[in-house]
Amino acid sequence: MTVRIRADLDQLPAYVAGRTVAGSLKLASNEVSAGPLPSVTEAIARAAGEVHRYPDMGATRLTDALATRLDVDPARIAVGCGSVGLCEQLVQITCTTEDSVVYPWRSFEAYPIMSHIVGATQIQVPLTAEHALDLDAMAAAITPDTRLVFVCSPNNPTGPAVRRAELERFLDSVRSDVLVVLDEAYREFVTDPDVPDGVELAARYDNVLVLRTFSKAYGLAGLRIGYAIGPAHVAEALRKVCVPFSVNAVGQAAALASLDAQDELRARCAAIASERVRVRDELLALGFEVPETQANFVWLPLGDRAAEFSEHCLTERVVVRAFAGSGVRITIGDTGENDTLLAAAKTFHPAG
Ligand SMILES: *Cc1c(COP(=O)(O)O)cnc(C)c1O
């Protein structure tokens, strides 16, 4: 006999991480290429000398700093082991096998995985023809047993963000006992003034929680720090189900130092946003379809040719993230990196 594990895990999709290929340029995981903010590296080194001690389980200093910066009660904040960790905790605290989760699709691949682990029913709502979230369809998809809705804005991997008017209309229509999670992993890259600030919406709606992360714009993906701002009883439940000490001490110190480096952050995000426009315009000129994007990546909805494009880029030593049969997501890098990607794209013929 062999050890028995849950049979349903056979159907659990594996999280596919962006590939790292030695000697190649990686534009596959929406990381910033510049590294941690310059002033943060020192804080990381200092914290490294203390790692024989357990981390502060409540991430108290970081929570207080976030509360001050964002003008929210610290009781409404939960820090997690990446916002991916918080996604899992959110399903855990809202759903059993009797309940359902509504989320857009295609979107962040953690949503189906985390929902499956808990055994919740998954209601996937297709994107619009413009590869954006279809909030009206999402509102219509909510059933009496829905407990949780993920709204990914900007949407990973396609790029569009939801605008204030449509999001408020959506929030006004959702039952108040359903938790709406605004996943704003890419918020710092948003330049469109019509895209609302999730923290402000979380202050106004009793059933809204916003997710943010230090992994993307702040350049701390390897240190695993994300946070949630939402109703106090939800934040408390999140803290209860968090794996003890999973929010590590070096990450807490780095996140804290990062909050003091807002000028460096702003400069970095502005550079990426302007490169985003250039890369998208050049790809459009080459004949690719490229949805509007507010994130640090572009999406090429190449359908059946997604894998072919990705292989083509690999021969040019550029790693992109292909979603077979669907499209390719390409992270915006620095100017030189983007030139390398554009040179590779130039020798691929989007029309076949
Ligand atoms: C990258 C990403 C996250 C989370 O990243 P963490 O590293 O776990 O903080 C969350 N949501 C979306 C949509 C992402 O793309």
From TrEMBL:
The keyword Transferase applies. Residues 25-343 form the Aminotransferase class I/classII large domain. The keyword Transferase applies. Its EC number is 2.6.1.57. Its cofactor is pyridoxal 5'-phosphate. Gene3D superfamilies: Aspartate Aminotransferase, domain 1, Type I PLP-dependent aspartate aminotransferase-like (Major domain). NCBIfam families: hisC, PRK03321.1. This is Aromatic amino acid aminotransferase. It comes from Saccharopolyspora gloriosae.
